[in-house]
Amino acid sequence: MNWLEHILGSNWTITPAGGSTGEAYYAHTEGKRLFLKRNSSPFLAVLSAEGIVPKLVWTKRLENGDVITAQEWLEGRELKPEEMKHRRVAGLLSKIHHSTELLDMLMRLGKHPLTPDDVLGDIIENQKILDQVDPRIEIHQSIKFLEKRVDQVQHDVHVVCHCDTNHNNWLLSSKDHLYLIDWDNAMVADPALDLGMLLYNYIPEDHWETWLKEYGISPDYHMFDRMRWYSISQALSFIQWHQMRGEYDEASIRTEKLKKIMQKHEII
Fold first, then answer.
1. d(Cα 191, Cα 165) in Å, to the nearest integer?
2. Residue 69 phi/psi, 5° resolution?
3. DSSP H helical ranges for 66-178
4. Among 164, 182, 190, 194, the one annotated catalytic
5. Phi first, then psi: what are they for 70, rounded to 5°?
6. One Pfam match, by short name (predicted)?
7. pTM of the full predicted structure?
8. Contacts of 250 (CB under 8 A, 6+ apart)
9. Considering its fold, how many domains does the chain have in total?
10. Residue 132 and residue 19 share a domain
């Protein structure tokens, strides 16, 4: 962390903040508190301007080309799973999906729309990792399902997707402002990618229509088909990711979630 001390000075207390990618730290001194990260995407500035993430305070480039960002370090907490039903969650996700500013910025950063073929191709390319998961029957049947349905879930509307709408990425500040954080894996994709993960994990199915109306749409069968396809594909992707990192307990949890989705729709 010498690079942080060089930037901030020796009177700051710096502690690791964890995170799945990059390097993130908390820093504080005499009433000032910051959240710092190395090599965050330039996308962060637009997210800050839109009020979707805590305010960006400054950005600095190191001699080696690395970029350090500093955001407000806010008092707050992650949402509880049952709080994901709240209309504010639907409202913020709708704001993100309908933001032309966010979409324009991500496209300028070189993100091309993610298609179902891209998603399936990545899963199959890394299938040997999934073959390590036990039991494998759900894995194999889910891949077959994705292959069978891939042509039926094509969609020509693409938006900025967060790609990990897990409840612990939603931050409620002490001032009652809701944020969606950790944008390292953001993509331009079908909004059903975000919606499928969120609804399947947190919203009882008899509340889906109400939740989606608060989000701003009246869902149809095609939307539900796409949500199911993406929820299964994301479950497989997360299983792969945790397996590669040696996080086998997390991979097992994701496998159980996948199994529930498959059973729910009588795919197995």
1. 12
2. -115, 145
3. 87-97, 100-108, 116-125, 127-130, 137-149
4. 164
5. -125, 125
6. APH
7. 0.88
8. 238, 242
9. 2
10. no
Tokens linked to 34: 């910051």
Tokens of 120: 């399936």
The CATH number of the domain holding residue 63 is: 3.30.200
180 pLDDT band, cuts 50/70/90, is very high
Exposed, middle or buried by CB within 10 Å (0-12, 13-18, 19+), for 7? Answer: middle
Identify whether residues 46 and 83 lie together within a single domain.
no
Q: Considering only CA atoms, which of 265, 180, 181 is closest in space to residue 227?
A: 265
Sign of CA dihedral 74, 79, 83, 89: positive
% of the chain residues with pLDDT over 90: 59
Any catalytic annotation for residue 134?
A: no
**Enclosing domain of residue 38:** 2-73
**Both tokens assigned to 122:** 């990545």
pLDDT of residue 117 exceeding 80: yes
CA distances from 130 to 136, 199, 251, 254 (A): 8, 24, 10, 12
Residue 83 shares a structural domain with residue 69: no
98 with 222, same domain: the answer is yes
pLDDT at 46: 93
Select from 73, 102, 126 the last residue of a domain.
73
